[in-house]
Amino acid sequence: GAGVSQSPSNKVTEKGKDVELRCDPISGHTALYWYRQSLGQGLEFLIYFQGNSAPDKSGLPSDRFSAERTGGSVSTLTIQRTQQEDSAVYLCASSSDRAPLHFGNGTRLTVT
Amino acid sequence: AQSVTQPDIHITVSEGASLELRCNYSYGATPYLFWYVQSPGQGLQLLLKYFSGDTLVQGIKGFEAEFKRSQSSFNLRKPSVHWSDAAEYFCAVGEWDYKLSFGAGTTVTVRA
């Protein structure tokens, strides 16, 4: 497909478990972003990857959150020891240089 | 620090009526401003953006927005709303699509 692809689309997990969320950006896009969308809270910036530069992790809410981007393409957001407050929609976006963000449909995470 | 306020959480409008969504921002320099739309279960789609130049910008789906520096506003308008415009709308400010700060969103309901 031509768009940003995220998987899974929905994830239900028990409190304390680890989860991995995947993002396949648009081919050729050098920049990749993760945002978190909580109910009524707008979008919260989490992390930004640009090419081979060190990622900007300044938005990660705690050390339980980490992300990597392999080969400059696919990215995985990992949340360890999930908590109920982690429940949200996690959105991935990609862009080419100086171009608008293209968003995926998100992963809805529910922590029970 | 940059921030965005969307004063209206929910707006209901009749089909064919005009629509205006408010957005106020706080930013230290000349901002890059964006409006995104999100349909249920979907990612965010860029409606329009303002970087510089003409303060009235045209976007997709018949939307336009006007940048008013004196009022720190970037309100979104559409002259005649269609039922398919029912969605959530987000205003965002940032530096060229990097680390965008989003408002909490405005949900638009269109009644027949």
What structural keywords apply?
heterodimer, A: 112 residues, mainly beta, six-stranded mixed β-sheet, four-stranded antiparallel β-sheet, 0% helix, B: 112 residues, 12 strands, 55% strand
Quick structural gist:
With about 110 residues, chain A is mostly beta strands. Helices cover about 0% and strands about 45% of the residues of chain A.
The greatest interface here is:
A-B, 23 and 23 residues
Low-confidence region ranges of chain B: none
Which band does the percent of strand residues of chain B land in? Answer: over 45%
Mean pLDDT of chain B: 91
Biggest beta sheet summary of chain A: 6 strands, mixed
Q: Report the helical percentage of chain A.
A: under 10%
Total strands of chain A: 10
Average residue pLDDT of chain A: 92
Specify Rg of chain B, calculated over alpha carbons.
13 Å
Shape of chain A: globular
Structural class of chain B: mainly beta
How many helices of chain A does DSSP assign?
0
The helix/strand class of chain A is mainly beta
What's the total count of β strands of chain B?
A: 12
Which overall shape of chain B is indicated by the principal axes computed on the Cα atoms?
globular
| Multimer state | heterodimer
The N- and C-terminal alpha carbons of chain A lie at a distance of 33 Å
The proportion of strand residues of chain A reads over 45%
- Helix percentage of chain B: under 10%
